[in-house]
Amino acid sequence: xxxxxxxxxxxxxxxxxxxxxxxxxxxxxxxxxxxxxxxxxxxxxxxxxxxxxxxxxxxxxxxxxxxxxxxxxxxxxxxxxxxxxxxxxxxxxxxxxxxxxxxxxxxxxxxxxxxxxxxxxxxxxxxxxxxxxxxxxxxxxxxxxxxxxxxxxxxxxxxxxxxxxxxxxxxxxxxxxxxxxxxxxxxxxxxxxxxxxxxxxxxxxxxxxxxxxxxxxxxxxxxxxxxxxxxxxxxxxxxxxxxxxxxxxxxxxxxxxxxxxxxxxxxxxxxxxxxxxxxxxxxxxxxxxxxxxxxxxxxxxxxxxxxxxxxxxxxxxxxxxxxxxxxxxxxxxxxxxxxxxxxxxxxxxxxxxxxxxxxxxxxxxxxxxxxxxxxxxxxxxxxxxxxxxxxxxxxxxxxxxxxxxxx
Length: 407
Hints:
The protein is globular, with a radius of gyration of 21 Å. The protein has helices spanning 18-31, 66-81, 87-100, 102-112, 127-135, 148-155, 161-176, 187-197, 217-225, 242-258, 275-278, 292-301, 317-324, 333-338, 357-366, 368-386, 388-403, and strands at residues 2-7, 35-42, 58-63, 118-122, 140-144, 182-184, 202-203, 234-237, 264-267, 284-287, 304-306, 329-332, 349-351. 49% of the residues lie in helices and 14% in strands. With 407 residues, the chain is of the alpha/beta class. α9 (217-225) packs across α12 (292-301). The strands form two sheets. It has a seven-stranded parallel sheet, with helices on both faces.
């Protein structure tokens, strides 16, 4: 089976986030024996990975055409200046621009000329491209990372959230109707899309490669080189998206208020936004970007992981990674709706409110029996449903059904 995966974001520098599940899907399908090519839309370069993960995968970097850049420049500037609070303006314009974009027409011609059996379009933003490919006779599958109406509204100013949600809801419904084959990485998103838009989707889950089996003595050495000790720190991983910034600042405030003397390691772009707030808090180590190997080491050696979810949509990749590495994880009630099988005190610790996080962290950190119980529960969940190989098998079965193709 020949598969084209189209990413709306650059994939050159990845530790976690949406780019991670795109890359790992490509790697997993290639390991399954499929021919996989990746097309990465990039405005600033770094569209393709430069590491061993992609050594058997062709990655084509597609540059944005000048007209699209010019038309989107004002709304991009507004989004940047407002720290994503006005992102909805760009998206409302972008969906119309993409109908006439030379970028998509050129990309469609390239993909159609290379005899693929299936195209996988990553995120709702590529629905129109999927529609165009379907008209040319190429089966297409849209992978939905978020319910955009909910996610974009959560980034907006409070006074605008209802307006943004209703506006994006109308646009998103219209865009999703363009393509018939829709899959989600979150069970909660599947149910929201059914309720909001009366559209059917298939839940397949997030594709994240990782396993406790990968942990080794080398990982301990990596941790020691960072000035850390295995099993003696809590881990938070996050991008610079607004929900992560809010969450990590609330975590720091809770730790500071309760004077919790536990080392908290913060990884990812979110670290750039909390240095001022962490200046008076001991036991906090901020790492910005780290290579994939070091991130794996941090998960391998963490005593616990923090992955609270109180806003936004989709599935936080840090939650899946924590479970794959069998790290005792503190999350929130919302996570139970995203991933089937999550249960409080069985495979995760569930918070009702983020203000309780320091107490939960303290209790979990000092209770070795509870940590072992939750870790065992995570391992069972991985073996049953969310492990990388099992997830890839679900995708492969669905793709085979779409193409009526059997290896």
